[in-house]
Design brief:
Layout lengths: L1 E3 L6 H7 L6 E7 L6 E9 L5 E5 L8 H5 L3 H5 L3 E9 L4 E8 L4 E3 L3 E3 L2 E7 L7 E5 L6 H10 L4 E2 L2
Antiparallel strand pairs: 1-5, 2-3, 3-4, 5-6, 6-9, 7-8, 9-10, 10-11
Length: 158
């Protein structure tokens, strides 16, 4: 699940507060009889060795700190503040959501809709890095899926 990121002026602060301060590594796969390397590699969390996915030889991991550093210029300029961040399925999917520092849209007099930018990545090889605008406050798997659908899937930045 996601965690609120109050008082996180930097991406490094948000990564720590969101429980995203870990790295992934690629390790070779071998056949059961150990006679041949498999044409794939495992992605695992470096700290505890949990396997997050199996990927092809061309896959290059993008560390959380490197992916989410994309937000720092917007934070420094006061254009956005970090709102929530988290991981799902033991780190297979990760995201950070930033609120855009502009007036919200008010619908029907009292329905306030905030503006957000969502950046997500998977460490299991199932999706690419995505970034896009969304009015959805991401806090879990359902809202992450909804935000990606509402943003037309987001844009690739990698």
């Amino acid at each position: 699940l996601g965690r609120e990121l109050p008082d996180c002026p930097t991406v490094a602060d948000a990564i720590a507060a969101g429980g995203l301060d870990w790295e992934v590594e690629l390790v070779p796969l071998i056949t059961g009889d150990r006679h041949q390397d498999a044409p794939a590699r495992a992605v695992r969390r470096a700290g505890d060795g949990s396997v997050l996915g199996v990927v092809g030889r061309g896959y290059q991991p993008l560390q959380n700190r490197d992916a989410f550093a994309w937000f720092q210029p917007f934070l420094d300029a006061g254009l956005a503040t970090l709102h929530t961040g988290g991981s799902l399925c033991g780190g297979r999917k990760v995201w950070v959501l930033a609120r855009i520092e502009r007036d919200p849209v008010v619908v029907g007099g009292d329905d306030v809709v905030q503006k957000f930018v969502l950046l997500s990545n998977s460490h299991d090889g199932t999706t690419s890095v995505r970034v896009g605008f969304t009015p959805i406050r991401v806090v879990c798997a359902n809202t992450l899926a909804l935000a990606h659908g509402a943003a037309g899937g987001g844009k690739l930045i990698r």
